[in-house]
Design goal:
Layout: E1 6-12, H1 20-30, E2 35-41, H2 47-56, E3 61-64, E4 78-79, H3 81-86, E5 91-95, E6 98-102, H4 105-116, E7 127-130, H5 134-145, E8 151-155, H6 158-166, E9 174-178, E10 191-194, E11 218-221, H7 230-237, E12 241-243, H8 246-261, H9 269-276
Parallel strand pairs: 1-2, 1-3, 4-6, 7-8, 7-10, 8-9, 10-11, 11-12
Antiparallel strand pairs: 3-5, 5-6
The structure holds 2'-monophosphoadenosine-5'-diphosphate.
């Protein structure tokens, strides 16, 4: 059937929209590896059986996306420290039938900023994070690991922000802010990160006034469809340096690829073009 082909993939529900098959397929080809990467739709009630199936099929590993990032943890034999601290697994490696869980989202977030704005220092000041969902967990973790001294966590549902802060590696560095105060809190910040789904194609707009945000502050939207969200467009108009979201996806994929294949792939302009289409 597949011989010694290295089988990898992404599990989720739904998963057909995933860009990961395109990204990993591109790198498999670029590195001349005999491998495959498939999107595997597994509904919640079939998770355990679905995973067993992948193990039996000889998969080397798989990414995990919505809605399984937390429930997969109970099925892993080992979970690395980063994934434990974030509280979610998005990459699983299968080693002799053993499932090892890790999380490459925080790396994707920080590496995207480092590559787009190499002069930015995470430790230079307070960062405002909008949202407290799954993506925010990885963003907050990445910031704290890189020495951000203070985070203002702004979420519509305050309770969710409190839970995120209390389960983080440094709750004392996180201030929970009411959603209504999101424009006011920008004063003095070194970066603003949107992790909510607002501004995504088909979703409501993110309403925020950037006038108090210092001119030299960065603005990062992890929404990448559209690539230049209204938030980034107005930030650019205000003279801010902006960081688009597609790089977070690409950089987390790099680390997952390295985990499975032992080689860190590059992001080429051709790949960026392909992913944005
Ligand atoms: P992800 O895993 O991509 O982060 P998620 O866990 O569903 O997705 O989180 C979505 C985030 O967008 C949450 O912070 C959510 O706020 P709530 O915790 O209050 O639900 C935020 N969000 C979604 N729609 C929003 C809206 N209309 N106004 C404000 N925040 C919104």
């Amino acid at each position: 059937m597949t011989g010694n082909k290295i089988r990898t993939g992404v599990i989720g529900h739904p998963v057909s929209h995933s860009k990961s098959p395109l990204i990993h397929g591109y790198w498999l080809k670029a590195h001349g590896l005999d491998g495959s990467f498939e999107a595997v739709d597994i509904p919640c009630e079939n998770l355990e059986a679905g995973i067993k199936d992948l193990v039996e099929q000889g998969y080397r590993g798989f990414n995990v996306t919505i809605p399984h990032k937390e429930s997969i943890m109970a099925l892993c034999d080992e979970i690395d420290e980063t994934a434990q601290q974030i509280g979610a697994v998005n990459t699983v490696t299968i080693d002799d039938g053993t499932l090892k869980g890790s999380n490459v989202d925080a790396f994707g977030f920080t590496e995207n900023i480092r590559s787009q704005q190499p002069d930015f220092s995470f430790a230079s000041g307070a960062v405002v994070v909008l949202g407290a969902g799954g993506a925010a967990k990885a963003v907050v973790h990445g910031l704290l690991e890189h020495g951000t001294p203070e985070i203002f966590l702004v979420n519509r549902t305050k309770e969710r922000a409190l839970i995120l802060a209390n389960s983080s590696i440094a709750p004392d560095k996180i201030n929970i802010i009411d959603w209504e105060k999101r424009s006011k809190i920008l004063e003095g910040a070194s970066m603003l990160v949107n992790t909510t789904s607002l501004g995504m194609k088909g979703q409501d707009e993110l309403e925020i006034d950037l006038s108090l945000l210092p001119r030299d502050a960065l603005v990062n939207d992890i929404v990448y469809h559209p690539l230049h969200t209204d938030l980034l467009v107005s930030a650019e108009k205000g003279g801010h340096r902006v960081i688009t979201g597609i790089g977070m996806l690409l950089h987390q994929a790099r680390l997952a690829f390295k985990t499975w294949h032992g080689v860190m792939p590059d992001i080429t302009p051709e790949l960026e073009d392909m992913v944005q289409k």
